[in-house]
Amino acid sequence: MTHQGAQQPTLGIDIGGTKTHAILLSASGQVLAQRVRPTEVGTDGVIAAALAAADDCLGSTGLVRSDLACVGVGIPGQVDHRTGEVRTAVNLGIERLDLGARLSSEFGVPVSVDNDVKAAALGAAAHLGIGDLSYLNVGTGVAAATLAEGRLVRGPGNLAGEIGHIPVAPGGVRCVCGQLGCLEAVVGGGRIAARLAPLAPAVTLPTLVAAAAAGDPDAVAEAGVISAGIATAVQLLVLTQGSALVVLGGGVIHTCVGLVDLVRRELAARANGSDFLASVDLAGRVAELPSDYPVAAIGAAMVARADAEAAAPASLG
Ligand SMILES: [Zn+2]
After folding, report:
1. 163 alpha carbon – ligand 1 mean position (Å)
2. Number of domains in the chain
3. Could you tell me if 236 and 270 lie in one domain?
4. Is the same domain home to 166 and 152?
5. 188 pLDDT exceeds 60?
6. 154 and 216 co-located in one domain
7. How many Å lie between the centroid of ligand 1 and the Cα of residue 138?
8. How close is the Cα of 27 to the center of ligand 1, in Å?
9. Rounded distance, CA 83 to CA 158, Å?
10. 17-76 per-position pLDDT tens digit
């Protein structure tokens, strides 16, 4: 069964706040098909959309659910990857859901579930071919996941990576978590949108960096705040985790054209006058993925692959 499973395709499902993206990977890692469906909220809605996206994917290649080796799912919220249980995925209307068990009874094959940012780190590693990296997601929320020697750094309760709740602006605005000046309160998408609203339509997130380059003082200030916040996150990840690369992703990164270069410039500026920082080359460790690379869905498939590989030696014994 293990040998046969090694030849069968793997399905990855990324359940996001608006879209559910299913991707079918061959045993050698080739994308056989991918389909996107609108996410539905609530426990039954989330499952219905995941199954619909999966069946679209399978149907387009003439396969059925039992042809799969395994299924991996990435989803926001607190995830117990050992049980497949999801808690407090607020944007999806989920308080508690046995997602792994529910989907595994539907698919009839093993289903692995992990947090979406942790899944994305695996997807980034698959694309870049390295096992020591951090993935920093800058979206509505801000979180990171780190792979060290190919393995996800988790800590009890999967706490590792909640970098959005490190205070980076002492005395700054209050964060949803109750602290003042958290990274998420500085560079989270919702907070940025609220600060930019009075500047529209002259300055918006897609045009922010260009407006700053043209000398608009409000844009200069805002672009400086955002790039400094993200630069600090990169610095934290590299200096605490030793990550060879920090891959930037998420809605803010994709929408704000030119932001990644600004982050690199900020990091290079910090290295001026510090032989130590210069030797670490923070700017050189900032990476981006092609915008059409489905990092979270590929990563979800990798979650299942990793579990299957971990289980294989035990099944031989
Ligand atoms: Zn916070």
Report:
1. 9
2. 2
3. yes
4. yes
5. yes
6. yes
7. 14
8. 41
9. 13
10. 889 999 999 999 999 999 999 999 999 999 999 999 999 999 999 999 999 999 999 999
C-alpha 156 – ligand 1 centre gap (Å): 20
How close is the Cα of 76 to the center of ligand 1, in Å? 17
pLDDT tens digits, 282-305: 999 999 999 899 999 999 999 999
pLDDT computed for residue 89 by the predictor? 81
251 CB-contact burial (10 Å; exposed 0-12 / middle 13-18 / buried 19+): middle
Indicate whether 273 and 145 sit together in one domain: yes
Count of CB atoms situated within 10 Å of the CB of 206: 12
* Tens-digit pLDDT profile for residues 152-180: 999 988 899 999 999 999 889 999 899 99
46 lies in which domain range?
A: 2-121+293-316
Same domain, 46 and 67: yes
Give me ligand 1 centre to Cα 153, in Å: 21
Q: Residue 293: phi, psi to the nearest 5?
A: -85, 120
Q: Do 114 and 139 reside in the same domain of the chain? A: no
The two three-digit tokens of residue 76, written as one number? 């926001």
Distance 165 CA to ligand 1 centre (A): 4
The rounded Å distance from CA 206 to ligand 1 centre is 25
* CATH number of the CATH domain containing 305: 3.30.420.40
Measure 183 CA to ligand 1 centroid, in angstroms.
Answer: 7
Residues 9 and 74 in one domain: yes
The alpha carbon of 171 and the centre of ligand 1 are apart by a number of angstroms equal to 13
153 vs 4: CA distance, rounded Å: 30
Q: Ligand 1 mean position to 186 CA, how many Å?
A: 10
